[in-house]
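User: Is it possible to get a 3D structure for a protein together with its bound compound? The compound here is 2,5-dihydroxybenzoic acid. I've pasted both below.
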Amino acid sequence: MTEAAAGGRLDIRPSSPAREEELYRRLGAEQLVPLWTEIGDLMPAEPTARGHAHLWRWTSLLPLAELAGDLIPVERGGERRAIALANPGLGGRPFATPTLWAAIQYLNPGENAPEHRHSQHAFRFVVEGEGVWTVVNGDPVVMRRGDFLPQPGWNWHGHRNAATTAMAWLDGLDIPLQSWLESTFFEFGAARVDGDDAPMRSRSERLWAHPGLRPLVSGAPPAATPLLAYRWEHTDRALCEQLASEDDGHPATAEPGHAAVRYTNPATAGDALPTIRAEFHRFRPGASSTPRREVGSSVFQVFDGEADVHVGEATWRVGRGDLFVVPSWQLWAVRCDATGVDLFRFSDAPVYERLGLHREQVDSLPTEGRGGVP
Ligand code: GTQ
Ligand code: FE2
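Assistant: Yes, that's possible. Here is the predicted structure of the complex:
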């Protein structure tokens, strides 16, 4: 103790730049960082997303996937001809958002993507084309336009194109999340996925795709969905009937002119995948969404139609196949004019909900999510 008076807190000295510098040097040498220089970065008043609001045009993606189809074989080791969306705010890593992977995958006629399994949860969504089937634990699942095909982590899967035309589709996985969480495991399986034919309905659908009917199989309900194909005919009919119900004066829509559904695990009614939420949204011509912001990030793909989309500072006119990212806590809204729009969306919402970190704000009026911190 030098200048400090006994018993008081008077040892606050006028700062000495030389001694301060010496402190920072010694902290650095010991791999230590003080809070007081970092607090603005570490504890902002609200989330400041590193990922940007960004749009990828289908008309740019598809020709590049086709070119990769000419040049790059699908082989053991590389595993998949998949091209990932790399968010410009995330340092060139193949991450669409800090938690979500989104890629266009492409398979030529006759090609096989070898079997493997990994801890990452995955899904396919088909915006156009057909002819590929994905084999999950020996269950061949055909893929067609509008289908949502989840593949929970640690299930064996490979893909096969036995058709005469190439096919492209969207892959969504939690690769970035599991990369940060250091939870990734991976194993090679069979080198080929054989066969010339696949049934129109997979074994998983024959067991699990009967509305409101759960097979009385023994054991605990599967944590991730046992249903491996959510067919377009069901999604389309659900949305048509929501809008028809609104016309009949019994509104059951998310908001006027906006029908929406979530893909759920038929055994639990929770999200189809533990770390990824998937939804389908249909806006009538002239409809728009209430601007909202949510904690956590999303990727959207336009399935059909056109709309003006606002995300943060950005505004885009989007059309079929286009993909865009909504970063955490950025305001987003969809506006339709004479054309309506169909949007597929996936997000990391289940992670935030499970951790009690979910929050959203609608039209600037705060609404706390369950478990949200006040
Ligand atoms: O199809 O199994 O886009 O394992 C990334 C990783 C697709 C797949 C991706 C994968 C796959
Ligand atoms: Fe995979």
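DSSP finds seven helices and 22 strands in the chain. The CA atoms of residues 23 and 307 lie 56 Å apart.
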